[in-house]
Amino acid sequence: MPMKGRFPVRRTLQYLNQGDIVFKSSVKVMTVNYNTAGELSEGARKFVFFNIPQIQYKNPWVQIMLFRNMTPSPFLRFYLDNGEQVLVDVEDKTNKEITEHVKKILGKNKETLEKEERERKKLSHPANFGPKKYHLRECMCEIEGQVSCPAFVPLPKEMRGKYKAAMKNEA
Amino acid sequence: AAMLPALRRCRPGPVPLPALAAALGPGPFPGLCPGWSPRAVPARGRKTRYDPPAKSKAGRVKLPPPVDPEELLVVLERYRQHRLVLSALRAEFRAEVLQKKQEERLAAEGSVEELEEHRRLMAWNDEENARQQARREERLRKQEEEEKRKKLEIAEKQARKMEAFVEEKEKEVLQLQEEAKNFITPENLEARIEECLDNPRNYNFAIDKDGRIVKRTVLS
């Protein structure tokens, strides 16, 4: 089965998870105006091609719109939920610079992200047993060093209830 | 063990007769399954709803269970109060949880430091835009200068070319003027013919193997 597109690595989960821009909750819409030709728009084009999939993956509830060849110079515009609009001029910048800039002004800090991560971890206790969907392990037989699952390896006689009951009845 | 055998199936445990459980059903007590399993068992038994009742039930009169009115009133009142209290408690707890969530959300969003931080970042963004604007103007200015300089160069080159051309032409004209002095005109014709006839020119020459020209031949 062939890979799709010019840079199919953009479709891999590992690549998408490497995106580090997580917008603040007040950012609702992101608009990119850029040109398909021209030296000055090169950084914006690379940004749209490589970094926007990562951003959308990390912010599924932010609407991203692209406008091509409408203005002579490229720029980004963010619409916040209190009606404020933030304009970012990206003419003659590389895509790395653009991501750094955006991360600085509208991205969540590393501390905020870590705090949220810790909050999320607090909800589920890793030592609990239960369905695979919510917990790590279902049964003690899954852990190495413990008694194996009796469905695959029968228990020795001494551990079985019917043997123990028979012994007791005998005695 | 000291039970009637008939009651043994009410003991908690696995279902002893799984095959017949669906067929008979635990009769009039659907909730009292052996093992208290939550399986839904049909209370109808063997007959469908369209089968006629049995002949032995012909004169049966089904009466509702007897009810003591005072006891009923007392029990109903007690239940009413119990449910009232319970629902009030639930509403209370729900409101408390909602309140806590609202507070947390407000605290997370509208804190003063965050607004400050946001304003600072916006200011920084504006500065960055201004810097970009300066760079752009610089670039445009340079481009314009470049263009002007190129245009000037081209104009100069053109002018020089024109000059050279004009010079060439003038030289040619002068040369022609010079040659015109030696032209043969109808007036000169006679004189020039006389001159040529008077001075015969000898164009013969010899050349040896070394390439030296020798003009010794005599004109006859």
Automatic annotation (TrEMBL), chain A:
UniProt xrefs under Gene3D superfamilies: Glutaredoxin
Domain Ribosomal protein/NADH dehydrogenase, first and last residues per copy: 36-109
GO cellular component terms listed in the entry, alphabetical order: mitochondrial inner membrane; ribonucleoprotein complex; ribosome
GO terms for MF: structural constituent of ribosome
Keyword set includes Cytoplasm: no
Keywords assigned: Mitochondrion, Ribonucleoprotein, Ribosomal protein
Protein localization: Mitochondrion
Pfam family, one: L51_S25_CI-B8
TM stretches of this protein: none
Taxonomic superkingdom: Eukaryota
InterPro entries referenced in this protein's UniProt entry, alphabetically: Ribosomal_mL43/mS25/NADH_DH, Ribosomal_mS25/mL61, Thioredoxin-like_sf
Predominant localisation class: mitochondrion
SMART domains xref list: L51_S25_CI-B8
Family: Belongs to the mitochondrion-specific ribosomal protein mS25 family.
Protein name as it appears in the record: Small ribosomal subunit protein mS25
Organism: Rhabdornis inornatus
Upper classification of the organism: Eukaryota, Metazoa, Chordata, Craniata, Vertebrata
Automatic annotation (TrEMBL), chain B:
Pfam family, one: MRP-S26
Name of the protein described by the UniProt record: Small ribosomal subunit protein mS26
Annotated region (Disordered), positions in chain: 40-63
Record key words, sorted: Coiled coil, Mitochondrion, Ribonucleoprotein, Ribosomal protein, Transit peptide
Claim: Transcription is one of the keywords in the record: no
Organism taxonomic ancestry: Eukaryota, Metazoa, Chordata, Craniata, Vertebrata
PANTHER family (UniProt xref): 28S RIBOSOMAL PROTEIN S26, MITOCHONDRIAL, SMALL RIBOSOMAL SUBUNIT PROTEIN MS26
InterPro entries the record matches: Ribosomal_mS26
Primary location recorded for the protein, binned into one broad class: mitochondrion
